[in-house]
Structures are given as C-alpha cells and as structure tokens.
Design a protein that fits this description.
single chain; extended; 4-stranded antiparallel beta sheet; about 35% helix
Length: about 350
C-alpha cells in the first residue's frame, strides 16, 4: 500500500508538471513567433500630424522659459592676459611670465551692468588649453591622492613622479600645472570677502583626496609648473587643487575660484587686483575672469533653450507639411492598390 501510494503521488506530480511545461512551451512559442498580445498602434496621417504638433506645443514654451531663465543670469567676463603685460614686454610675453624677479601684479576695473544678487560666483576661464590630452589626463595617481606615500607605483605620473630622488605628492602633470593666478576685489575702498570654501565637489573632498595625505616634495624640481601647495594642509582641504584636478573635456573651460556673498548694485565699479602668474603665453592660451550669478538652471547657457525651440519649431513645420500632403493627396486607409507589388 505504501508503494502504491508512493507511485500515485509521483504520478500526480508528473501530471501537474506536464501542463506547466506545455504552457511554458506555448508562451515561448508565441513569444518567438511574435503572437503574444501587444499594442500595435497604427500610424495614420492624423496620428502623425497630431503627435508632431503636440511636440511643438510642448517644446517651444519650455524652450522660451529656459531662454528667459538663462538671460536672467548676469555675467561679467573680462580677458586679462594681454592687458596685464607691461608695454615693454608685449613683444616677448613668455620671457616676462617666466622671469621670477618681475612682480606680476595687475589691476582691472569691472563695471556692474545690473544688480547682481548674492552669491556671485567667481570663475577663471582658460581658452586653447587642452586638459583632455591623453597623456595629460593619465598623468596622475588616484591611489596616491587617497593614501599618500603608501602608494608606490607612480609610473603613470612621469615625468613628474619624483624629484631629487624623492617621490612627489601629488604627482603628475595635472597637479604640476596647477593654476596660480590670484584675485582680490575692492569696492569703494573696501575689500569684498571671497569665500573659497566648498568650491569643490563634496564627493571629491570626502572620497578622492585623503584627509591624512599632505603635499610632499611638490614643485621642488628644476622646472616649476604652476602653483605651490601648503605642506601643512591635507589634500582634502586644498580645494584649488581638487577643482583643478577635475579635468575639462573641451579646450575652453571655466573653473570656480570662489564666491562673493554680498549683493553688487548696478553701476558699481569693482577694482580687481590680481597676480598674473600663470603661463598661457607659451601655447597661445587666453585667460579670463568671470563674475556670474546663477538661476534654478545654473549658469548662463542658451544651448538648452535654443535646442528646445528648434526641435519644437521643426516638429510644427513637419506636422504642417504632412497635413498639406495628406490634404493634397489623400489616401484611403487600407487600400491595397497602393502596395508596391500591386502597382
């Protein structure tokens, strides 16, 4: 009895499995043969015209709002690399910038066109500077930036991996070419306070640059690239370096220098006292100072708004063309005489 009972339960299990397997096979067959229930929209002329028209109606207002928001951002852009070269050195700018015995101080005057509400972001802009060059981008050691001298393999940083027989922290061409122009802003004989904290990404400060890693043997070689670093401050707090180490994808780019956290009124004249230390003259680069407010979309950039307006306008034009073609040459729906093999 026990054996028969056991056989019966086994047979029942097999019987229960057969329908499941057959159902699965049926579903698989329907899937492979594309016989499963599906939504198959029929793209009639009216549907196409309506879809393109709806895209235009949605995209154009979004584009106009985006453009209006972008235009609400106030920007002051001033190029200073040529103005900050004394007249007698303008025939040989490279020798001027490389001569460490000459003081590189310079003054600019910026007039505020409209009321600028705080915070006002300060950027330096470099043109014709290819930070995206393959060898330049790879000339760094992320393990060293996180763990310091514990990371021994710095071959990727050559030729700026060691100096005088000692390793360099941080190593590589990116850190070696650190931007080192400085700016001071004066309004009506009083200095504007520039907040230089939190200008780098929080993720970079907390995870990519070590809190116990300090500069070591930096800019002590024969050739000095850019700025120096305070050896008593950990890399996680050297935000100028962190901002610079996030390389740009295009040859013209901006990087944040700091923030002015007080409003500037229209027609205010801002005196900028700067140190023109950074060498862009060897490769024909340009340097600009940028003061900018921001909006809920960020900085001033018309591309997104223009793109929305362009796509929306194109959609409306296409819908009108399709509508005229349909009115001029109407075609009965489902007429097989229009098929190529029936012509």
């Amino acid at each position: 009895m026990e054996v028969e009972g056991g056989n019966t339960s086994a047979n029942d299990a097999v019987a229960r499995k057969i329908p499941i397997q057959s159902r699965r096979a049926k579903v698989f067959y329907q899937f492979t043969q594309q016989n499963l229930p599906a939504c198959k929209p029929v793209l009639t002329p009216s549907w196409i015209v309506t879809t393109f028209l709806l895209m235009g109606v949605i995209f154009i207002p979004i584009g106009l709002v985006t453009l209006r928001t972008s235009h609400s951002v106030i920007e002051i852009v001033e190029r200073y690399d040529t103005e900050c070269i004394p007249e007698k050195f303008r025939g040989n700018k490279v020798s001027y910038i490389k001569d460490s015995t000459i003081l590189k101080n310079c003054s600019l005057y910026l007039k505020v066109p409209k009321h600028m509400k705080a915070p006002i972001y300060i950027y330096y802009q470099l043109d014709n500077y290819y930070q995206n060059h393959r060898r330049y981008v790879k000339s760094r050691n992320d393990q060293q930036l996180s763990h310091g001298l514990k990371s021994n393999d710095t071959s990727s940083c050559q030729p700026e991996d060691s100096s005088n027989g000692l390793p360099i922290v941080p190593c590589g061409l990116i850190a070696w070419s650190l931007f080192n122009d400085t700016f001071k802003f004066i309004r009506e004989s009083s200095e504007l306070i520039v907040n230089r904290k939190n200008i780098a990404w929080k993720s970079d400060r907390n995870h990519k640059f070590g809190k116990q890693v300090y500069p070591f043997n930096f800019q002590n070689g024969t050739f000095i690239g850019g700025g120096s670093l305070d050896p008593s401050v950990p890399l996680s707090d050297q935000e100028d370096l962190i901002v610079w180490m996030r390389t740009a994808a295009l040859p013209s780019f901006r990087k944040m220098y700091g923030r002015i956290e007080e409003d500037l009124d229209a027609d205010d004249v801002i005196a900028v006292h700067l140190m023109n230390n950074y060498n862009t003259y060897s490769f024909g680069g340009k340097k600009k100072l940028v003061l900018s407010t921001s909006s809920w979309l960020g900085g001033k950039n018309d591309f997104l708004g223009v793109a929305y307006v362009f796509v929306g306008s194109s959609s409306i034009i296409i819908s009108l063309v399709f509508m005229l073609l349909h009115v001029k040459n109407p075609r009965p729906y489902g007429e097989t005489a229009y098929l190529s093999w029936n012509r």
